[in-house]
């Protein structure tokens, strides 16, 4: 049993994801309360080079052919073995497509408590999790003996978890990975399309508030008048009103732009985590309490259908 | 909940169990993977398409940026569903009525709840917004005029 905080590094196609660095930053804060070390845990195959900028005290590397690409079964086996052997104080996973496949399973397999959607830790080492789509925070003592934690972005900046002098890498043993029940066949790359919204300086974003496919035209007209491109939140894409390449958010694209003009978007964490790096967010929403107003620089509490055409005309008149 | 479901599903000997990837209320996402482990079945979440082929499930799993992974999962398995390949459709009320008449709902006893493993929450609170948007007020005309000025100021017009 140690007081160390383990961070399971996430990487895909040779790229370490931002959440890994966010977790390293969170682990640093937590380790100050527990008095242990921050230990990055990297699983992969011939992937040691990925461990070059981790702000950790130590890096454990688990190398195996069957860990080359993420599959839930192999990660669970390798990590169950490591956690049982090392008994750290806490293990952090991303609240992501990777971490969420592993953390809960391990909690049941090893009989360990699980904290989900943690955004930050307090100075005393309590967890603060976001629930109800980020509208409510839940705080509690970090459960014992070993807490498994999934972390959502927002509490720490990824840059806080990067370091130019990464510690040396220690190889750790990998258990036999036999009879795996999940195998990766292939990756399917997103279709390359007309526009890459992550490279656009100005986006007109529409959410469920746009109501139906025909109304997308209104957003298109506005985008044309100002020289931007239309993108959307998940419900808009799931309904087939816009193509997948236009999705902004956790499962879509991250954007970092000059102006993000959001209409009829509530501001769920899965959406906003991808837009907070933008210079200016302007939000139009009928609900004065919509969370999007907490991250937007400018807000307009109004029915988007009352505004959009008038605004388009104004813009056309000025340009 | 996962333990209670597991007791029933074991009895039913299901080959494939589908759960949502996230609860709609607190956005927690543990029912599927916990259930899978109780059943000793494999789990894959964030799934947006699934087919059965030769005793295996061929699934597509979502990663950020629109990347998908095609995976094979041996059955029995539990999948956490993120979205359907087709958008959900409305079902005509007449069809719903038909189904209500034709099918019956069988009640089963759930075993006693065992909530161990869940962390205790000491306090819940509304996040303090570090900032709030500056609200632009007025009629649609007035707001539009102000927005045009703002866009000019920001250098996009
Ligand atoms: C694993 C996972 C990944 C996800 N990934 C993403 C992702 O990548 N991107 C993403 O966006 N979501 C993602 N989501 C979904 C996310 O949780 C939210 O459900 C989604 O962002 C909500 O979209 P919305 O704001 O458009 O809809 P809603 O939350 O329904 O909000 C609609 C808003 O429109 C307002 N409105 C309604 N009518 C009008 C009107 N006439 N004028 C002005 N305002 C109006 C309402 O007040 C409301 O605030 C993901 C969820 C999961 C579980």
Would you kindly provide a written description of the structure presented here, covering whatever features stand out?
The complex is a heterodimer of chains A (319) and B (157). With 319 residues, chain A is an alpha/beta fold. Chain A has 2 domains: 5-171, Rossmann fold (3-Layer(aba) Sandwich); 197-318, 3-Layer(aba) Sandwich (Rossmann fold). In chain A, 26% of the residues lie in helices and 26% in strands. Chain A is built from 8 helices and 17 strands. Chain A has helices at residues 18-34, 72-86, 99-110, 216-226, 234-238, 269-272, 292-295, 304-318, and strands at 5-8, 11-12, 15-16, 38-44, 58-63, 90-94, 114-121, 127-131, 136-140, 147-151, 169-171, 182-188, 202-206, 229-232, 259-263, 280-285, 298-301. A 9-stranded mixed sheet of chain A has the order 9-8-7-10-6-1-4-5-11, with helices on both faces. A 5-stranded parallel sheet of chain A has the order 14-13-15-16-17. In chain A, helix 2 (72-86) packs across helix 3 (99-110) and helix 4 packs parallel to helix 8. The termini of chain A are far apart. The mean pLDDT of chain A is 95. Chain B is an alpha/beta fold. Chain B has a domain at 2-86: HUPs (Rossmann fold, 3-Layer(aba) Sandwich), CATH 3.40.50. In chain B, a hairpin with a 2-residue loop joins strand 2 (43-53) and strand 3 (56-62). The longest helix of chain B is centred in the last third of the chain and has 14 residues, at 140-153. Chain B is elongated and about 65 Å long. In chain B, 30% of the residues are buried. The interface between A and B is large, with 96 and 75 residues. The structure holds flavin-adenine dinucleotide. Flavin-adenine dinucleotide (FAD) sits between chains A (207-209, 233-235, 247-252, 264-266, 268, 270-271, 284-287, 290, 303-305) and B (21-22, 46, 82).
């Amino acid at each position: 049993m140690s007081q160390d905080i383990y961070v399971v590094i996430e990487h895909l196609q040779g790229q370490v994801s931002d959440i890994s660095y966010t977790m390293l930053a969170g682990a640093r804060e937590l380790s100050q309360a527990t008095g242990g070390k921050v230990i990055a845990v990297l699983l992969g195959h011939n992937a040691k080079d990925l461990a070059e900028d981790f702000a950790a005290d130590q890096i454990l590397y688990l190398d195996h052919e069957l860990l080359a690409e993420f599959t839930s079964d192999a990660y669970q086996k390798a990590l169950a073995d490591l956690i049982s052997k090392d008994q750290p104080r806490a293990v952090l996973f991303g609240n992501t497509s990777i971490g969420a496949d592993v953390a809960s399973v391990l909690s049941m397999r090893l009989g360990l408590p699980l904290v989900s959607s943690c955004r930050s830790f307090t100075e005393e080492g309590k967890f603060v999790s976001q629930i109800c789509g980020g509208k409510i925070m839940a705080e509690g003592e970090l459960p014992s003996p070993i807490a498994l934690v999934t972390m959502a972005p927002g509490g720490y900046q990824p840059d806080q978890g990067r370091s130019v002098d990464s510690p040396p890498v220690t190889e750790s043993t990998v258990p036999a990975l036999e009879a795996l029940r999940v195998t990766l066949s292939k990756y399917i790359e997103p279709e390359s399309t007309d526009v890459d919204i992550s490279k656009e300086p100005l986006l007109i974003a529409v959410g469920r508030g746009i109501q139906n496919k025909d109304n997308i035209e209104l957003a298109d007209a506005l985008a044309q008048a100002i020289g931007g491109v239309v993108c959307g939140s998940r419900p808009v894409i799931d309904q087939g009103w816009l193509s997948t390449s236009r999705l902004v958010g956790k499962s879509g694209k991250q954007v970092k732009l000059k102006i993000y003009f959001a209409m009829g978007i509530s501001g769920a964490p899965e959406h906003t985590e991808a837009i907070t790096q933008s210079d200016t967010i302007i939000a139009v929403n009928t609900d004065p309490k919509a969370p999007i107003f907490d991250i937007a620089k400018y807000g307009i509490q109004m029915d988007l259908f009352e505004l959009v055409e008038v605004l388009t005309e104004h813009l056309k008149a000025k340009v | 909940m996962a333990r209670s479901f597991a007791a029933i599903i074991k009895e039913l000997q299901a080959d494939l169990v589908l759960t949502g990837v996230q609860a709609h209320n607190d956005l927690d996402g543990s029912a599927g993977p916990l259930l899978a482990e109780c059943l000793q079945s494999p789990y894959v979440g964030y799934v947006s398409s699934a087919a059965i082929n030769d005793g295996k499930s061929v699934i597509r799993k979502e990663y950020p940026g629109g990347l998908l992974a095609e995976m094979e999962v041996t059955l029995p398995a539990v999948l956490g569903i993120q979205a359907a390949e087709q958008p959900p459709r409305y079902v005509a009320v007449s069809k719903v009525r038909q189904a209500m008449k034709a099918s019956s709902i069988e009640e089963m006893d759930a075993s006693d709840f065992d909530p161990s493993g869940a962390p205790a929450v000491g306090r819940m609170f509304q996040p303090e917004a570090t900032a709030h948007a500056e609200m632009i007020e007025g009629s649609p005309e007035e707001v539009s005029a102000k927005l045009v000025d703002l866009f000019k100021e920001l250098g996009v017009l």
